[in-house]
Amino acid sequence: MNTPLVAVAIGFVTVCATIAVLTREPVRQAVVLAAMGLGLSVLFAVLQAPDVALSQLAVGTALTPLLILLTVRKVSRRSTAGSRPGAGGADRDDGTGR
Amino acid sequence: MSARARLLMFAAAAIVIGVFYGVASAETPSFGRASHPYGDRAVAASLAHRTANVVSSVNFDIRAFDTLGEESILFGTVLGATLLLRLARDERRRPAASERVLPTTRLFGVIWLPVALVVGVYIVAHGQLSPGGGFQGGVVLATALHLGYIAADYRVLEKVRPLAVLDVADSLAAGAFTAMGLAGLAAAGAFLKNVLPLGTFNEITSGGTVPLLNAAVGVEVASGVIVLLAHFLDQAVEITGNDEPEEAR
Amino acid sequence: MGPWPYLAAGWILLVALYGLVTSRNLIHAIGCLAVAQSSTYVLLLSVGYRRGGTAPVFSDLRPGSRPVVDPVVQALALTDVVVGATVTALLLALTIQLRKRHGTVDPQALTGLRG
């Protein structure tokens, strides 16, 4: 009775993992990772591992995507406002050369 | 190395890994088989120590030394992230402004924040009985606290998380795990030996040292994750470098 | 189901490695690393599954009345889920530092060490 559920959950997780890797944009990837975390916790629950499902639910759907989103916000703040010439790879020299 | 050469190298490695992994999978005992010698022995050992949740027993009794290692990794990463994300010389901290919140959102936070905190404590405290334990409960506690950010604003969150206290709590909890291990060494001659009275099966006091180690890990995970998130939030919300434009608020 | 769960775990690992190799953004690469980590959980829990077994928790189950799945692999996966997330946080913190000091998060633009 449990086996079809396991098959569906593994299929979902595999597809999510593939999409997550092919999504090159970190913000969208964080959303896919959250969906994958949810799928993983369902998979762990049907594999009779409630302990692991619980921690995957808290970590995979909330913590990891949140950390990625915060990092994206911090990292992209300079480049989105950076309409200065040479904003990109080599613009640190004016900051560190003081 | 060019991107193309790198991809070719990956393809070669992936084929080798794939073939060997596929062969190994075919030879591995099949999915859902009935014989699990290690699992059966772990269940017997856990029941002998009157711990109802076998997973907690494996983590905090049978393989407690392994968990000490995992917990040290956690402590090390929190320490490392704290060092990396400290305020640099060319950065300054701009206090977050207070923000208006919808009354319904505030109500949501006020109702669910205490509920979530109680659930977190429950999960840590009942780790030896029902699914849960220090690792899961700690994460629940840490994320629950951030309902305060959703319900109010960043300044409220900063008030409800005393970072200096949490830093100390993190270290003390990491030390407490080792101290309990040393207590086992002194009392019974083996590091992390379960020396406390085992209690009654299926009571909250059962399992000897398991609930105590659970509590130590719970405190460590909760304070560690709160500290981690605090540094990331500070970076994203408050800290700006000198060459960063001021954001319009 | 034969070896399919194991093969699914292998696929997740390989596709995540592909993402790591071709990544042009360190944050994306760290996301791929998280995917690679989860492949180990899928493999471990699949190995420990027992058909018709229930969770290894005896608070509402008389010991010996039903077969249970393997608790050892669950314990291994459980600790790693949480510890893996904090390691992800450390890597993201390194990325933030890198962005501050070198102005880029593209691993292919980091040609050499600069002071």
Q: Give the class of chain B from helix and strand content and strand pairing.
A: mainly alpha
Assembly state of the chains shown: heterotrimer
Q: Terminal Cα separation of chain C, in Å?
A: 55 Å
What count of helical segments of chain C does DSSP give?
3
Q: What is the name of the CATH topology of chain C?
A: Helix Hairpins
Radius of gyration of chain C, rounded?
A: 20 Å
Q: What is the C-level CATH assignment of chain C? A: Mainly Alpha
- What is the radius of gyration of chain B computed over CA atoms, rounded to a whole number of angstroms? 23 Å
User: In percent, how much strand structure appears in the residues of chain C?
Assistant: under 5%
User: Got a strand count of chain B?
Assistant: 2
Our estimate of the beta-strand percent of chain B is: under 5%
What does this structure look like?
- The complex is a heterotrimer of chains A (98), B (249) and C (115).
- Chain A is an all-alpha fold.
- Chain A has helices at residues 3-22, 26-46, 50-81, 93-96.
- Chain A has one domain.
- Chain A has 4 helices and no strands.
- In chain A, helix 2 (26-46) packs antiparallel against helix 3.
- The model of chain A is unreliable at 80-98 (pLDDT under 50).
- Helix content of chain B is 67%, strand content 2%.
- Chain B contains 10 helices and 2 strands, in the order ααααβααααααβ.
- The longest helix of chain B is centred in the C-terminal third of the chain and has 28 residues, at 210-237.
- The model of chain B has no long low-confidence stretch (mean pLDDT 88).
- Chain C is elongated, with a radius of gyration of 20 Å.
- Chain C has helices at 4-22, 26-48, 71-102.
- Chain C has one domain: Helix Hairpins.
- Chain C is mainly α.
- Chain C contains 3 helices and no strands.
- The chains are: A mainly alpha (98), B mainly alpha (249), C mainly alpha (115).
- At the A-B interface, helix 3 of A face helix 6 and helix 10 of B.
Task: Put the structure in a nutshell.
The complex is a heterotrimer of chains A (98), B (249) and C (115). Chain A has helices at 3-22, 26-46, 50-81, 93-96.
